Amino acid sequence: DTEVTQTPKHLVMGMTNKKSLKCEQHMGHRAMYWYKQKAKKPPELMFVYSYEKLSINESVPSRFSPECPNSSLLNLHLHALQPEDSALYLCASSQTSGRYNEQFFGPGTRLTVL
Amino acid sequence: DAKTTQPTSMDCAEGRAANLPCNHSTISGNEYVYWYRQIHSQGPQYIIHGLKNNETNEMASLIITEDRKSSTLILPHATLRDTAVYYCIVRVGNYDKVIFGPGTSLSVIP
Predict the structure, then answer these.
(1) Quick one: which of A86, B10, B83, B106 is 20 to 30 A from A53 by CA?
(2) What local confidence, expressed as pLDDT, does residue A96 receive?
(3) A45 lies within 8 A of chain B by CB
(4) Which of A22-31, A96-105, B19-28 has the lowest mean pLDDT?
(5) B104 φ, ψ (degrees, to nearest 5)
(6) How far apart are the C-alpha atoms of B60 and B70, rounded to whole Å?
(7) A to B CB pairs, distance under 8 Å
(8) Chain B interface with A: residues with Cβ < 8 Å
(9) Is A38 helix (H, G, I), strand (E, B) or coil?
């Protein structure tokens, strides 16, 4: 299995809702990543987990809360989002964190905040 | 942090080689050059990476200049399915970080 899966594919939520994005990989990778991508812009790194510990938080607002329950699973909990948070949220994984390892990306969750 | 510059857009005729340039003049000696592409509405896809030698795989070839200040990704026989945004990336000092630049939008034309 060489896939990163993300659910849901699409999500529409109000500003007062709480929702979660899910990412899963079964490649034995020990590093997992969340990116945010606005329309016609490159992906921007949000968080990095290495061996299930948060290693990088790119000054992301606290309304985004990542969680890595085990080495195969990565969640992004969303609460009190703003309309400008509407974007494609991409998950990626790599064998380990390191400059030699390519990242495998999932198809993304397209989030719309009303 | 090494930064990259790429043309905003390029066209290539179907069946011809697509040569995508990237400048990374501030690259450090131990930083790798990576190429990814993103087809519309999909997640980015890894293509190839290299340090200083030229590299080839089933998808593409990567040519890195001797001074490592620039590189070229070559798709030898472009097809319509190669239409995508191509990102040249240099892994920064904290090597967990991957910073995508604006990329080159490649259009393969029939």
Answers:
(1) A86
(2) 77
(3) yes
(4) A96-105
(5) -115, 125
(6) 17
(7) 54
(8) 30-32, 34, 36, 38, 42-46, 49, 85, 87, 91, 94-103
(9) coil
Of B49, B95, B100, the CB nearest to A42: B100
Contact between B43 and A108 using a beta-carbon 8 Å cutoff = yes
Q: Detail the DSSP E strand segments found in B33-94.
A: 33-38, 45-50, 55-56, 61-64, 70-75, 84-90
Q: Measure the CA angle with vertex B38, ends A90 and A45; round to 5°.
A: 35
- Does the structure show a pLDDT above 70 at B17? yes
The torsion of the CA quartet A86, A88, A89, A93, rounded to 10 degrees, works out to: -170
Residues pairing with A21 in the sheet: A76
Q: What's at A28, amino acid-wise?
A: G
- How many of the other CB atoms lie within 10 Å of CB of B21? 15
Q: Which two tokens stand for residue B85?
A: 């945004």
pLDDT band at B10 (very low <50, low <70, confident <90, very high): very high
Q: What is the rounded average pLDDT of the residues A82-103?
A: 87
pLDDT tens across B18-40, in order? Answer: 999 999 998 888 888 999 999 98
The shares of helix, strand and coil residues in chain B, as percent rounded to the nearest 5, are 5, 45, 55
pLDDT one-digit tens code per residue, B91-108: 765 566 778 888 999 999
Flag if B96 and A4 touch (Cβ within 8 Å): no
- Around Cβ B66, how many Cβ atoms within 10 Å? 6
